[in-house]
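A quick aside before the break. I want you to see a complete sequence-to-structure record at least once, exactly as it would be stored in a machine-readable document. Don't worry about memorizing anything.
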Amino acid sequence: MISKEKLSRLASLSFMIAILVVAAIFSAMTAMRVAIRGREVVVQDLKGKTEVEARQILERNGLILKVSQSRFTPGVPEGRIVEQNPPKGTSLKTGRSVKVLVSRGERKYPVPNLLVQVFAQLRSHSRKANLPLELRTLRIRMREKLLRLSISRRHRKPLKARIRR
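That is the input. The structure line, written in tokens, reads:
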């Protein structure tokens, strides 16, 4: 038979285990409730803002900014936000992240300086023909010619206006 002393110890040990199990279940339920509910905020529109401005706006609301990509975007200055995910008006819990696409500006293509090549060819041809070539004068004349050409092209009338019947 089990003595009263052993039975008392077994009962007190069982009671302590039961208290620990109830406390563990209660804390797990409380943690789940806090995690599931949390505080929700509405995502604001970040398009057209700089990365710094967007980060400040999101941090005030408890959200995190993540730059997912950057790409060349015509018509959008460099460093401005082009797209965001999730879109504006979406409800998010605090601590979540908003991914953005940042513009790298317009794509710029390098254009070779053809005048340097033309001058080099003119110099070599003038040396072969024993003609003196003043490079400075030639540069000024070329610039004037290019300037006149660009000005005249800007002020041309449309093609339809020039057609006569």
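Two observations worth writing down. The longest helix spans residues 4-37. Residues 149-157, 159-165 have pLDDT under 50 and may be disordered. We'll return to this after the break.
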